[in-house]
Amino acid sequence: MPLLASRVLVESSDGMTTAAALMKAALAYRASQLKKNSASGWRGFIPHRFSARNNSSESLNRLRHRELLQLIAEGDTTKVNESLKRTDSIRTYLDRKTVSGQSALYIAVCKGLDQIVALLLEHGADVDQRNCGEYTALHAACEHEQEGAVRMLLKHQANVDLMGPDGVRAIHFATQKGFDHIVNILIQYKADIDAEICSSGLTSLMIAAQLGHINVVQTLIRAGADIHAEDNKGNSALHFAAQEGKYQTCCLLLAAGADPYMPNIEEDTPVDLADYHGYSHVVYILEFPTLNLSTSIVTDDQFSLGMGGALNDAFLRNRPDIAPIIVKNRMKYARFYDLGRITEEAS
């Protein structure tokens, strides 16, 4: 049995382990209590006077921080702006974290509040501050497709290659979600496109290939991603695409020079993985990579040459019910894929 390529991959930047989930629940409860207190006139009046009477700057900063978080939760840009302008000591509480380890900037990014993100950055929020899971606002922006936030964070000198747990970077999040426009932005800011996830050795190209994110694969190849890179088990991006039956991705990788007979540590090639999983159409294109399916002209000789070897074996073993039909109609079959009538997801 072939060695299966590692499955994806990147844990959510929310870091929702059991402990984190409990902390998030506790924070939600506290937020609801704060809202009740606010409705009865608590916010912005009694606490501040109480703090002033007790001459406790720490208490005052803590209360201002809570107020700021509540205004962000409400999405009230005007009041957030007023709150930020109200004091000269904003730096003493702007980067304070919640119980679950989230900063005001991180929360605003996750909620897609671009105007508030801009205000926080203008007032000096720490652009690379980490949450309790060691992820940054840029990680969250890439995972949640917040393009505006991504641009603002990078413009304010966010570290494009700052690593989270296990070496995960912003480009890994954007790649896993298939956000090619976000990947493009990260590449413009010199993100390391061949950066590996420590525990698996997976690169962005491997992630995109496994998931069939065609646009991301194209973007990474054009940017010079290493198509021959191997994960910790010796799998290339083509191994991943072949294992998952991603026909169009295989074509792109082959056109870029990927080797369909490159063995992993178990001596399994992309052809072996496609064959084992029953992707006969992928076996065909891998066995006969010189065939140019991007053109509308495909000769009988090309197809008859490709109908030997592993392709016939794969059809007969995996789909004996349709093998004769496919062999008989091989021209129509290949053109069917060439025209894109079967999507990467369906294949």
What do you see in this structure?
By secondary structure, the chain is mainly alpha-helical. Mean pLDDT is 78; it is low at 1-5, 16-23, 38-55, 291-311 and 330-342. Helix content is 54%, strand content 0%.
Topology:
Elements: H1 18-39, H2 46-53, H3 57-74, H4 77-85, H5 91-94, H6 104-110, H7 114-122, H8 137-143, H9 147-155, H10 170-177, H11 180-188, H12 204-211, H13 214-222, H14 237-243, H15 247-255, H16 270-276, H17 280-287, H18 300-306, H19 310-318, H20 323-328, H21 330-338
Q: What is the fold-level CATH name, i.e. the topology of the domain at 60-154?
A: Serine Threonine Protein Phosphatase 5, Tetratricopeptide repeat
Distance from N terminus to C terminus (CA atoms, Å) equals 22 Å
The number of helical elements comes to 21
How many strand elements? 0
ANK repeats: 100-132, 133-165, 166-195, 200-232, 233-265
Pfam families: Ank_2, Ank_5
Keywords: ANK repeat, Repeat
GO molecular function, one term: ubiquitin-protein transferase activity
Task: Please give a quick description of this structure.
The chain is mainly α and 347 residues long. It is built from 21 helices and no strands.
Keywords summarizing the entry:
347 residues, mainly alpha, Serine Threonine Protein Phosphatase 5, Tetratricopeptide repeat, 0% strand, disordered N terminus, ANK repeat, Ankyrin_rpt
